[in-house]
Amino acid sequence: MTLRYFMENIMSSPTKLVVIAVDFDNDIGRLGINTPVLGYDNMLKIANEYALIAPQDSDLNVLFTALKLYRDLKKDENYSVEIALVAGDENSSSRAGIKISRELDKIIDITKANNAIVVVDSVEDEKVLPVIQSKINVVGVERVVVEQLRGVEETYVLLGRYLKKVLEERRFSKIFLGLPGLIILTYSLLLIMNLTTYITPTISVIIATFLVFKGFGLDDFVSRWWRLSPITRISLILSTISTVMTIIILYITLASRNFSSDIISITLYISNTIPFLLLSLIPLIGGRLTLRILRRSIRVWRDLITLTVIIILYGLITRISELILTTQPTNIQQVLVLLNEYKVTNMFFIYVIIIMTVSAVLYVIERTAT
């Protein structure tokens, strides 16, 4: 805002005006000066002394800008003008606001001013504007910032706010601190155990798992599930343990077969891990089933159907694995012939039709009841 704007805003009638220079972090306190400071001569003396101590400080520009503004306004007989300096606190924004508020009360009490022009030198100092506006009518704000540094200063403040969010807000800290911390910890442990060949795949799995969880919103699902009830918390813990066991068993089975990809090896991989994989699902479904029973929800049939599907799948997979391991087929065509011969395919389609029919009937009943 320009001086012309200030003058046009308050030219209509005589008014008592005070030009307030703001030193939010109390750099001026290095001179041993107690604020508030009132009067042109006192301000000019302080400005000259401060210029000898810190000629590069932007607060010096605030002092001289306020003095120039005072002189320009003083030339107009329509104004009764005063000038004042207020200072905050270098250690705390909250204490700075409280201190400036008290100093403003003194200034207004002495000058009887009803309008103010505020002179600040940075984005940080502008925090004081709501405090001043709560005490007196602010007709203008003079921002004294070296133009080529304005963008740099605002960028610095913005980066500071983001850094504070990263450190203090959990939703950001778990991404920018938690994930890198987990990767560094994993790298260090594998290095200590002399398992350097597993560093890249292990870190890749960690990053992939994180991306999958965030991409599909699984972290929100787990968070909601955890907060739901003690039953769901226990089921989530049991499911996590089973999942970890599944991964361990799968790796051991893969290593025992030298990571082979023939029919027999794949069958062994599936037959050894499927019990633990299904076991990781049962606590989740069982926990939700228990919760719905306690709440007397009509949707309890959905969890019963899911458990039934898991049991049927387990039976079919076990049967197929036994047939393959017994007959030792060498290609996929022989496997398909084997499944047809023992009517496994027919059993599968019969189960699918029965489950779909029962589910459709129960869904209609649920819709009718609700």
What is the ordering of alpha helices and beta strands? HEEHHEHEHEHHHHHHHHH
Shape: elongated
As for the number of domains, it is 3
Residue fraction in strands? 5-15%
Radius of gyration: 37 Å
- Helical/strand content category: alpha/beta
Instruction: Kindly report the average pLDDT value.
Output: 80
Q: How is the main sheet built?
A: 5 strands, mixed
SS elements, strand count: 5
Quote the distance from N terminus to C terminus: 64 Å
Please give the count of helices: 14
Low-pLDDT residue spans: none
Helix amount: 55-70%
With strands numbered from the N-terminus, the spatial order across the biggest sheet is: 2-3-1-4-5
Model description:
It is a single chain. The protein has 370 residues and is an alpha/beta fold. The chain folds into three domains: 3-152, 3-Layer(aba) Sandwich (Rossmann fold); 169-216; 217-369. Helices cover 70% and strands 9% of the residues. The chain is built from 14 helices and five strands. It has helices at 3-9, 40-53, 58-74, 93-111, 129-133, 147-168, 170-192, 199-215, 218-228, 230-256, 263-294, 300-327, 332-341, 344-369; strands spanning 15-23, 37-38, 79-87, 115-120, 137-143. It has a five-stranded mixed sheet, sandwiched between helices. Helix 5 links the parallel strand 4 (115-120) and strand 5. Helix 9 (218-228) crosses helix 10 (230-256), helix 11 (263-294) packs antiparallel against helix 12 (300-327) and helix 12 packs antiparallel against helix 14. The chain is elongated. The model has no long low-confidence stretch (mean pLDDT 80).
